[in-house]
Amino acid sequence: MKTYELSAPKGLDALSCQERPDAPIGARDVRVEMKAWSLNFRDLNVPLGGYPGNDKIVRNPPLVPLSDGSGEVVEIGSDVEEFSVGDKVTSSFFRDWESGAAEASQLSSALGGGLDGTLAERVVLPDRGWVKAPSHLTYEEASTLPCAALTAWQSLTAANLIPGQSVLAQGTGGVSIFTLQLAKAAGARVIITSSSNKKLEKARSLGADVTINYREQPDWEKEVLAATNGVGVDQVVEVGGSGTLEKSIASVRVGGVVSLVGILSGPTGGFSSIGAILNAVTLRGIFVGSKEMFKLMNASIEVSKLRPAIDQVFDFDSLEEVKAAYDHLRSAKHFGKVVISRV
Description:
Number of domains: 2
CATH architecture of the largest domain: Alpha-Beta Complex
CATH topology of the largest domain: Quinone Oxidoreductase, Chain A, domain 1
Shape: globular
Radius of gyration: 20 Å
Number of helices: 12
Order of helices and strands: EEEHHEEHEEHHEHEHEHEHEHEHEHE
Structural class: alpha/beta
Largest sheet: 7 strands, mixed
CATH superfamily of the largest domain: Medium-chain alcohol dehydrogenases, catalytic domain
Strand content: 25-35%
């Protein structure tokens, strides 16, 4: 079968297309004929060495990249009960985190980081590593769910979002657009930022209540306060990292929650904690989610008929196209998700 491999932590120059034999299947395993994949910001870091606990490319190369993919079940082990041949499924970001609070060993089972990922024609994982996809979604749409959507879902649900509350989403990448869509489906009011008025117009078409161009309004936290009558939002889904965290804290209400999910502004830098202390703000780290959370999210997506926003689709059968998908993500010109497909 055709698969893509990163041979060493040397960036995309180390990405190649290879032929591998199909993996054997055990009693609790499920073999899936993959149809589509999506990229996440972490997939730009993995080729350079990954991050603690998710660095197979350093410890034991080569690495098959990507955590997110969807496909059709073509074979099941003798003890598998959850799936049948023909089911449309998606990968679960953490192969081994099924439910409950995460343990360190489970967080090391991230596909395309700690373990080989999904960018191959066929993938075998234990049944705990797959989730049935919402029936109304295409394979390409379903492929966008495992990381970005579940990160947004856990951020919102861990902070107990209820109808009528307000949420701030930063930018228009995968996590932020899913935050917008999931929060609106839950009856929340959503404020979203971007440096592009064109992207903000698209966000309004998906239901954004307030849009802020942070290039035109560098003190965007003041705009958030103005839009909430000086109170601040109930939640912020923070994707920027240290470069935006103080502004996020200044944007949230007394007793509100800032969910820390990304480091788009860079992994280093200091911030003052005084705003969080004086306003009793909860800072909560979010690392995607468990299979149980994924199934709950999919049930919600099924009811709301939410459809993921896909920016551009690239061809799985071309190494140049696959690399172009990475480059498009790196350019930050996308709105929503970047997808690779063989549908």
